Amino acid sequence: MGWTDSHLHQFEKDGAHYGVPDEEDVVEMIDAGRVSLATLLEAEGDSLVYTYDFGDGWRHDVVLEKILGWSDKATRPECVGGDRHCPPEDVGGPRGYEQFLEVIFDPTHQDHVNMVRWAGGRFHAEDFDLKDVNLSLARMRWPVRCYK
User: Fold this and answer.
1) Is the pLDDT of residue 13 over 50?
2) What is the pTM of this model?
3) Whose C-alpha in 5, 73, 111, 119 is 20 to 30 A from the C-alpha of 137?
4) If residue 50 lies in a helix (H) or strand (E), which one and from where to where?
């Protein structure tokens, strides 16, 4: 998504919750660091729910659409496509993002200048830069765990 991973998150599949375990968890949380995505999404059509930033409440349905052929050269994830720009971190969830877009695309709005500054400059919601996404993925440290 392009977020900073600065908020709590969890994956949910078949009633089990995977994330960062905490003593205050309301539900049992399985340590996500001990589970590979390949064990949760094994076949085309398998899905799970990813929730990011519990305060903002970003909820994503993740579906394994296609399994590509095996490559012994694969050492990290690669994005093969996408749509639209990632919402800014801490924008306030789906409702906050709607309000953000209303302000950012209306130069006459009283909060326009402040919102553009907060967003770090012009924001193009329709932009998706596949090359930029893959450069970001390449800069991250990935455990080299490949599953055949």
Assistant:
1) yes
2) 0.79
3) 119
4) strand 47-52
CB 126 within 8 A of CB 101: no
**Which amino acid would we find at residue 34?**
R
Q: What percent of the chain is modeled with pLDDT above 70?
A: 90
**CA 57, chain centre distance (Å):** 12
Closest CA relative to residue 123, chosen from 146, 147, 141, 97: 97
* Beta-strand relationship, 9-13 and 16-19: antiparallel
Both tokens assigned to 97: 């993002």
Q: Which domains does the chain have, with CATH numbers?
A: 1-67 (3.10.290.30)
Tens digits of residue pLDDT in 58-98: 999 999 988 877 766 666 778 888 999 889 999 999 999 99
- N-to-C CA span, the chain: 26
* pLDDT at residue 136, as a whole number: 85
Distance between CA 6 and CA 117 in Å, rounded?
21
